[in-house]
Design a protein that fits this description.
CATH superfamily of the largest domain: Rod shape-determining protein MreC, domain 1
CATH class of the largest domain: Mainly Beta
Strand order of the largest sheet: 1-2-5-4-3-12
CATH architecture of the largest domain: Beta Barrel
Strand content: 25-35%
Number of domains: 2
Radius of gyration: 43 Å
Order of helices and strands: HHHEEEEEEEEEEEEH
Structural class: alpha+beta
Largest sheet: 6 strands, antiparallel, barrel
Number of strands: 12
CATH topology of the largest domain: Thrombin, subunit H
Helix content: 25-40%
């Protein structure tokens, strides 16, 4: 390093001469038109490139704003489509109910299911019709396909329905061919299969027979389809009978509520008889 400094000090005059010569040549070159044009052209190219990059950077923000605007517009259109499709589906379902049950629709209230609770044992439906619409407790709920359940609680604008697929639901039914009576119940699990209780093994009930509600029911009107017998297995006293239900509960949207009111006299006399036969507690 010391030798380099010594060399510079010894030949400083020559080094200054070379430096000034180089500056002179550079200044002479800058005075040439071709050089100035080349520098100006290169500067314009650099300026254009920088401007393009800045414009692209601004376009990114503009594009983001445009995407947000388009997203909001698509959301509004999607919401409108959903509302229109829902209204169309509701109208189609309602027209189907009226078409298939036009001879009896005047005797029913039409209601839409607005909430439901599905569980292994305690299923529940909520309909948008209540006391102000004439709905009362214990009224039968159905579709043209068959029995849905019974009204168990009523408010001013809504009613809770216990469907057939509830462990606490019971209904008296009768078969169409052999006139076999039994009690329809549901033991949980498969929502398409219920059971028929109190059927003696001596019964003439056959697989394939259709079941409807009977006069023995304390809430349902007579003749509502319930399902078909799909299996009968024997036992010592009563048969075990499986019933394929007529109603497809997962796809329910509209239901009919029977305007026929349960016979209070029948309910009261049956309750009085049950109280009379109950064993006295000590």
């Amino acid at each position: 390093m010391l030798s380099i400094f010594r060399f510079i000090a010894r030949h400083s005059a020559y080094l200054y001469f070379l430096l000034f010569s180089g500056l002179s040549i550079l200044i002479m070159q800058l005075q040439r038109r071709e050089t100035l044009d080349a520098i100006r052209s290169q500067g314009m190219a650099v300026n254009a490139s920088v401007s393009e990059e800045l414009t692209s950077f601004g376009d990114i923000f503009n594009l983001r704003d445009e995407n947000e605007r388009l997203l909001l517009q698509n959301a509004r259109l999607f919401s409108k489509v959903i509302r229109e499709e829902t209204a169309l589906r509701d109208t189609r379902n309602l027209n189907e109910i009226i078409r298939r049950d036009s001879t009896r629709v005047g005797r029913f209230f039409v209601a839409r299911i607005v909430d439901r609770r599905f569980s292994p044992m305690d299923n529940m439906l909520l309909i948008n019709a209540g006391s102000r619409d004439g709905i009362e407790k214990d009224m039968a709920v159905l579709t043209p396909d068959g029995l849905v359940g019974r009204v168990t609680a009523v408010s001013q604008n809504y009613a809770r329905v216990m469907p057939v697929i509830n462990k606490d639901f019971k209904a008296s039914v009768v078969s169409d061919s052999s006139s076999t009576l039994g009690v329809l119940s549901w033991k949980g699990g498969n929502e398409y299969v219920a059971h028929l209780e109190n059927v003696p093994t001596s019964s003439r009930l056959k697989v394939g027979e259709r079941l409807t509600t009977s006069d023995h029911s304390t809430f349902a009107i007579r003749g509502i389809p319930v399902g078909r017998v799909v299996r009968i297995s024997g036992s010592k006293l009563f048969s075990e009978v499986d019933v394929r239900l007529s109603v497809d509960f997962p796809s329910l949207s509209y239901v009919l509520v029977s305007s026929a009111r349960p016979s209070r006299e029948k309910l009261e006399i049956m309750k009085a008889e049950e109280t009379k036969t109950e064993p006295k507690r000590k």
